[in-house]
User: Fold this.
Amino acid sequence: MLNDIYSRRILELAASIPHLGRLPDADASATARSKLCGSTVTVDLKLDGDVVTAFAHDVKACALGQASSAIMGQHVIGSTADELRDVRQTASRLLKADGKPPEGKWEDLKVLEPLRDHKARHASILLTFDAVVDALDQIEARRSQSAG
Assistant:
C-alpha cells in the first residue's frame, strides 16, 4: 500500500519542487489548507493579461502535496488562467471520478492515479490547484472591480 502512495516518482517530485519561496510583488496570493492533515500551500502569482509570468510557493505539505506542487511549479509559468482552471478540474476528476490523466505538459499528473482509493489524501494533493485558482479568482475580481 505505501509503495502505491509513495512511488519513486512521487518522492522524486517531492524532492525537487521548483520556485520555492514567495513573490514580494505578486498580483495575488492564496493559501489552501487541508483540515485533515494540516498541510498548507501558499502561492503567489503574477499575470500579464491572462498568462502567468511569475510564480512562487511556500509548501508545507506531505510528500503527496509536495509532488503535486512540484508538478504545478514545473508548468505554471506560461500557462493561462483557463488552462490552470481546467487542470484543477482534471486533477480532481482524476482522483475522485475515475477521470483520465491529461496528456501534454500536465501528463505528470498520471502519478496521482494510484491514489484514487486513498480519499483521505485527496485534499493535500489538490492544495496547489485550489490555491492557484483562488489567486486567479482574486486577480479576476480586482480587474472586474476596476473596470466597472
Q: What stands out?
A: The first helix runs from residue 2 to 5. The longest strand covers residues 51-60. The radius of gyration is 15 Å. Helices lie at 2-5, 8-14, 63-75, 81-96, 122-147.
